[in-house]
Amino acid sequence: MTVGIARKLSRTKPHREALLKNLVTQLLQHGTISSTHEKCKEASRLADRVINMAKKVNQMEDGRARDKYLSEIQSRLFLSGDNNHLLINLVNAIAPKYISRQGGYTRVIRLEPRLTDKACESILELVDTPILDKDGNLNKGNLKFWLLIKNVINDESQSKPYNDITIHNLQKMAKFKDRKQFETEILTVKRLLKGQANQFWDENSESGLVTLLVNQVYHTVLSSKGHSGYKFINERPLRPKST
């Protein structure tokens, strides 16, 4: 149920705040979480606020103002046990990734309803998460990116041109990424997906296909086929006479 802007989630205010704090803490710790769609939407709003405050902390030189924002962030997260270093990671690692973004730091992806109670489930993940970490291990998240590359592989296997929707979504994901990094991530995901499917892999030919794909992503201007707007007329048209 929605009252005003925020959802009550069938809980009292203290219970709801504790639930959202826990969801956002797990999101910042692991990069992705799964829950019901309504919980993911509300947690997404709170996560955007927390990341915005962390970005402001990095831009502050006044110690008092910085401490004030840090205490505000601490009040919105559970920082105990395994999460002791989460605040440092948020300010020093997560927030700097979104300096060029004005908002939209999270993504909600709908899943199929649960088999038990048919509740609408979704995945909430941080955007612009690198595919590999510093040690070369796979990061959690990036579900949408993996699905897009899977569509790319299917189009290439059928010798079809890339779907416009796939190109459009890749354009949105490449907007805040370095081109070289974007090419490397596409090649990495394609290699893993083809390896799981036991498909033939040739590094040179695949690198050429990735270069062509990235060129199309960066240079294609897709035509919008949306609603062109209302048209105002001065006179009401006459109805045709019945015969």
Automatic annotation (TrEMBL):
UniProt keywords (A-Z) are: Ribonucleoprotein, Ribosomal protein
**Does the UniProt entry include the keyword Ribonucleoprotein?**
yes
Show the Pfam families listed in the entry.
Answer: Mrpl_C, Ribosomal_L17
Q: Which GO terms describe its molecular function?
A: structural constituent of ribosome
Please tell me whether the keyword Kinase is annotated for this protein: no
Q: Which GO terms describe its biological process?
A: translation
Which SUPFAM superfamilies has this protein been placed in? Prokaryotic ribosomal protein L17
GO cellular component labels: mitochondrial large ribosomal subunit
Per the database record, which ranges form the Large ribosomal subunit protein bL17m C-terminal fungi domain? Answer: 129-237
Which family is annotated?
Belongs to the bacterial ribosomal protein bL17 family.
Q: What is this protein called?
A: Large ribosomal subunit protein bL17m C-terminal fungi domain-containing protein
**Species this chain originates from:** Kazachstania africana (strain ATCC 22294 / BCRC 22015 / CBS 2517 / CECT 1963 / NBRC 1671 / NRRL Y-8276) (Yeast)
Q: Which gene encodes it?
A: KAFR0C04170
